[in-house]
Fold:
Amino acid sequence: MEDTGTIRLGNGNFEFPIIEGTLGEKAIDTRALRAKSGCITYDEGYGNTGSCLSKITFINGEKGILKHRGYSIEDLAKNSTFLETAMLIIYGDLPNQENLETFLQKIRSHASIHTSMNGHFDSFPSAAHPMAILSSMLNSLGAYHPEMSTNNREEDLAHFDETAVILISKVRAIAAMTYRMKMGMPFIPPADTSYTSNFLHMMFSEPYNEYVDNHGVGKALDLFLMLHADHEQNCSTSTVRMVASGGANLFASVSAGVSALWGPSHGGANMAVIKMLEEIHASGDDGSKFIEAAKKGEAKLMGFGHRVYKNYDPRAKILGKSSESILGSMGMNDPLLEIARKLEQSALKDDYFINRKLYPNVDFYSGIILKAIGIPVDMFTVMFALGRMPGWIANWKEIAENPKSRIHRPRQIYIGETERSYVPVNKR
Ligand code: SDX
Structure:
């Protein structure tokens, strides 16, 4: 017998089906609530609202569990790579050797962008924020692939595999070219090498001097990207689904995702964490004063807290270790890491944070890794977007392939003026 739930309202009792996920999550299916009762639900920030049924990623916030298609993030971080995990997230299974090689070859073959897109960078002031450039360049990329950005679901899906490869590969070139443009340096054409080595080459090589990775930077960056690959219905992924639900193509949808990711409460937090650590360091504080300020509500401990994780973000644990090993292999001693460790240890023992279940999230240590690699702070959220691309692509696919998917159009409760008549301006 199907499980049901009853909602008792002034005008009666209303029964609704209970949906249970494969890992035990439960939801009241309220799709008929307004038709049956005339009421809607109100849940600002959607903290208690499921927007979809998805097979891609599972998070248990209470236990700090993150799985992609049933594989734990710890298992993938130990054994997989960014692009292999990207295939898992997008297509649902770990690829066999042949499919993986084909995918890697396609990524290599799409490493550069159309030469006429180089000129787009001239239209941005050098002070333009990299996320503004990235969002517009991704939408522009769709214009170079009109057959993949028709906004006709069937046609766009017919080109999905190639669109996915183009976005994953070319977003990397756009990011590197954005950095080079802002630094006033010439663009470096891609080389025939692995995903992260090619990115580092396009970022840091010179026409006369090839970037050499002597400290496993490429491997650390690959892990960073993998840990950002998808994360259920976060702000930017929900934005991608919202835009996809109206039938928009994948380029337009991920371009919107970049804009949503930019904010300091979301992907912009990795930039805010480094700025916070630098300010603490510059003030001579070891973090203790800052913690007190945060407890008084005078400051926010960026990189801490999460809407879903009420336990340690498993990604933060892995990135914390990775930040130590990359600094170690580079022989670097970053005082910001010591301050971060001190903030973490103090916060984890402090009732203010314990009572609010505030733990380090993915952004807390990621900036230390990016800084050690030499990536400028204003490019940190661009790096988050590079990692999140496969997740956005997979969520767009889940919407586009669902013949029953409907346009996302939330309701509201109106609390404005009730009835007013027009008054001519000379009488106001
Ligand atoms: C990401 O959703 C995802 O999955 C996102 C992400 C992904 O992979 O896509 O995981 C990536 O965006 C991680 C989050 C990055 N953002 C930050 O690190 C910014 C700092 N964190 C906060 O802004 C906040 O914790 C949020 C935005 C992450 C979550 O906000 P919520 O769930 O709306 O929680 P809240 O703001 O209602 O806070 C509850 C309480 C409040 O105190 P009281 O009013 O109860 O006294 O906790 C306090 C808040 O003031 N609080 C903090 C805090 N975060 C929450 N106090 C100090 N420092 C913080 N960081």
